[in-house]
Write a structure and sequence with these properties.
single chain; 10-stranded mixed sheet; 6-stranded parallel sheet
Length: 808
């Protein structure tokens, strides 16, 4: 890339003059940012072309990873690290009188995802790039992302995330690879040469335009990994002056309808229009992606029957489940294969990752809407459903309930998870516990029918981003102790256990944590105006706001601590050890309950942070607009990682792993990947509390939990809940009645009250342990040392070996 800073300076100046046409000293930071990205893209293009040619010549299998989200964060600092030129670039900028950090700050987080699903997809692309697996991610180029979260009077307010307003220099538009996507219309069926022919007529067409972003792995220029994002545009882009002058707005309406498909992630779907837009989004990127895949495959010399040997189409959750009928449509309508042959190819090409346990979260679409928007796809889904029903009726002729539970079309809905299971050869969960629950609870009928399809692939995270990049001091300390092999093989981190009793190492670990906490404290004060003590415990819960993730239980614990401290300043644990409780995360725009939880947390913060008797003991912070870059600031600074979802409800979680790599101690339930973290670090290095998954599932089955009993059994808990509706926190009676009713009138669906006291007691024990620095730092080091198994490299090796059948 660049051998030294002199070479970098020479090439940067030449590129700046070429791209900006200006003197360097007259440039602005945005200009320097664009120039640097352009220079990097130019440098990596030729090695990528060479490697792509090698892959084609060797007939290597290609993976296409379909996901509605790719939360890639900022690419520039990450790619500089991966290419090994971060120091050269920083020193070069310094010599040119340019602030390198200001250049980096010009890049905004790409608005391409929301939470764990999208960040997992991004981690996996990075690991595939590092491991040399040929892959293309397929997603949507959202113009405004999910939304930008602002807090006004403690309430979440959503504003457009105009993340591309200054351009996005990493992407390359590929007009010549556009795909036509068809909606609505009717299907003309004719008989020709003894077979049926299907012609889509009177359709609305959308032009899917691809934008490609390179994915650069660690130490990698040999990759052909890329992310292809599809933008929706009208097919006819000419301005109709005659229509305009006559007052018509048809062209403008058509453009708006087309472009709306790639405007925002997860449009609010409480209305039919919102549901239609979501379904159109899902078909749009599936049809565009598969259209490109098949166009590429046709250019090879391979017969269609070999498609499963040469291509793996992997669908990340149910959003891309339309890959199943769309691939069937291409094979039948365009390649003229018989149904049986097309089905064999389709099922053996597509694999499916399930990310949810809760049945209500499994997508389904009303039949009438589906048929209206996607008439040909509906015909194929209907035939898939008919043939599936016939096969089940032959096997289980008297089990009508089994058929209705597993059919693709049932009770006037198209069930996307059923379609994904039936139309794929592999169905994997994302944590050992999650997979067992899928097999024996959520998808037990399908496990009975297709046991060979089910397997587990526990999630992993890109530790090079969330440790090596986000926590450079800790990374240097690790390398000083065990060498730099851990950057290529996370299992090497286990060698840190040899340093568990080394006093100097433990003290250095504590100093690094304090420095990271100071950095986060500065950010908090700058953005909230609240000064927090970096010597306090940083107790952190950052994730999407949802009832099952139980941010409310955390908030009630804080309220209990506040009540107790008002009575007894020296209460055991928290009274002698200051704590800063930190929250971050977004609530879906239409999810009123979650937005009320955010408002409650901020009400706690307002009262507690302004109370002079209490605010030197504890403070509460809600950091707005959580994203990857803010996560890179928070994960290294956390002392306690709150992973407190209701057991059996969280599929895996990945935030727990990012905290673990940075030495935070987990306070959590045995849910999702917490179970495997517990197996790795042992009881002595994390704090587990609450009901186990089998207990929770038992209560759901028996319907024998009654939250009012908890309310009446514990006076202090009764006080907490009464404060939700009596105006204690805001002076407005009834302000949080919705939360009160969710816990009592709606019987506490996620067992907040049942697990509350074990949570409070475990939290207190953890706070008391913190008073012993050597003990705490040994726990922290053990977590770092045992985190290697949660690398996304390990996950991807398992996907490649067990699902995609690839040699790496």
């Amino acid at each position: 890339m660049f051998q030294n800073k002199q070479e970098f300076i020479h090439e940067f100046k030449a590129k700046f003059a070429e791209t900006e046409g200006n003197f360097l000293e007259r440039g602005e930071y945005r200009d320097y940012y664009r120039t640097l990205v352009s220079l990097i893209l130019e440098k990596i293009s030729f090695p990528q072309l060479d490697y792509r040619q090698q892959t084609l010549e060797q007939h290597r299998k290609q993976v296409y990873y379909f996901s509605m989200e790719f939360l890639i964060g900022r690419l520039l600092p990450y790619y500089l690290m991966n290419l090994g030129i971060a120091d050269i670039v920083r020193e070069g900028f310094s010599d040119m009188g340019i602030d390198a950090e200001a250049v980096m700050a010009e890049e905004r987080d790409a608005g391409l995802g929301n939470g764990g699903l999208g960040r997992l997809a991004a981690c996996y692309l990075s690991s595939m790039a590092f491991l040399g697996i040929p892959v293309y991610g397929n997603g949507i180029r959202y113009k405004y992302g999910l939304f930008r979260q602002k807090l006004e009077n403690g309430q979440q307010v959503e504003t457009p995330d105009d993340w591309m307003s200054g351009g996005y220099p990493w992407e390359r538009r590929r007009d010549n690879r556009s795909v036509l996507v068809k909606f609505k219309g009717n299907i003309k069926v004719t008989e020709e040469k003894g077979g049926l022919m299907f012609e889509h007529e009177n359709y609305d067409s959308i032009r899917a335009v691809p934008y490609d972003i390179p994915i650069i792995g660690y130490e990698g220029l040999r990759t052909i990994t890329g992310l292809r994002l599809w933008s929706a545009e009208p097919v006819e882009d000419a301005f109709d002056l005659h229509s305009f002058n006559k007052g018509a707005r048809t062209a403008d309406t058509s453009r708006a309808d087309a472009e709306s498909i790639s405007y925002i992630l997860y449009p609010e779907d409480s209305s039919q229009a919102g549901q239609e837009l979501r379904l159109k989004q899902e078909y749009f990127f599936v049809a565009a992606g598969l259209g490109t895949i098949m166009r590429t495959f046709r250019n090879t010399e391979h017969p269609l029957a070999s498609l499963p040997a040469m291509v793996s189409v992997h669908i990340n959750d149910t959003h891309p489940a339309l890959c199943v009928p769309e691939l069937m449509r291409i094979l039948i309508d365009e390649e003229h294969l018989a149904w049986e042959e097309a089905w064999q190819i389709t099922v053996n090409t597509i694999s499916y990752t399930n990310h949810t346990i809760m049945p209500e979260a499994l997508e389904r679409w009303p039949v009438n809407m589906f048929r209206y928007l996607l008439p040909r796809i509906y015909m194929i889904v209907e035939e898939i459903d008919r043939r599936y029903r016939e096969s089940i009726m032959r096997l289980y002729p008297e089990d009508d309930e089994l058929l209705e539970r597993t059919a693709v079309i049932s009770h006037d809905y198209v069930h996307m998870s059923n379609l994904a299971v039936i139309g794929s050869y592999s169905v994997n969960g994302v944590a050992a516990l999650h997979t067992e629950i899928l097999k024996h609870e959520t998808m037990k009928d399908f496990y009975r029918l297709y046991p060979y399809k089910f397997n587990n692939k526990t999630n992993g995270v890109d530790y090079r981003r969330f440790l090596a990049l986000a926590n450079p001091e800790l990374s240097r300390m690790i390398t000083d102790r065990i060498g730099d092999g851990w950057l290529r093989d996370a299992a090497e981190l286990e060698r840190l256990l040899h340093w568990q009793d080394d006093e100097e190492t433990l003290e250095e670990l504590a100093r690094i944590k304090l420095n990271n906490k100071r950095r986060l404290a500065a950010y908090i004060e700058q953005h909230t105006g609240v000064a927090v003590d970096p010597h306090s415990i940083f107790d952190v819960q950052v994730k999407r706001i949802h009832a099952y993730k139980r941010q409310l239980m955390n908030a009630l614990r804080i309220a209990w601590f506040y009540n107790r401290l008002k009575e007894d300043r020296d209460m055991a644990g928290i009274g002698r050890q200051p704590v800063t409780f930190i929250f971050a995360g977004k609530a879906a725009p239409g999810y009123h309950y979650a937005k009320t939880v955010i408002r409650f947390i901020n009400a706690l913060a307002a009262k507690i942070n302004d109370d002079p008797e209490i605010n030197h003991h504890m403070k509460v912070i809600f950091i707005e607009n959580f994203n990857v870059s803010i996560g890179e600031l928070i994960y290294p600074a956390a002392d306690v990682s709150e992973q407190i979802s209701t057991a059996s409800r969280e599929a895996s979680g990945t935030g727990n792993m990012k905290f673990m790599f940075n030495g935070a101690v987990t306070l959590g339930t045995l849910d999702g990947a917490n179970v495997e973290i517990h197996e790795a670090v042992g009881e002595e290095n994390m704090m587990i509390f609450g009901m186990r998954s089998e207990e929770v599932i038992g209560h759901y089955r028996r319907q024998d939990y009654h939250s009012w009993q908890e309310y009446h059994r514990h006076p202090e808990l009764k006080q907490l809940l009464d404060q939700l509706k009596d105006g204690f926190w805001t002076g407005q009676p009834g302000d949080f009645t919705e939360l009160y009713e969710s816990l009592l009138h709606y019987n506490d669906q996620f067992f907040v009250l049942k697990d509350f006291w074990p949570y409070v007691e475990s939290s207190g024990r953890l706070l008391r342990i913190y008073k012993y620095p050597a003990v705490w730092q040994r726990m922290a080091l053990a977590n770092i040392a045992k985190a290697g198994r949660f690398s996304s490299d390990r996950s991807i090796r398992e996907y490649a070996r067990d699902i995609w059948k690839m040699d790496i």
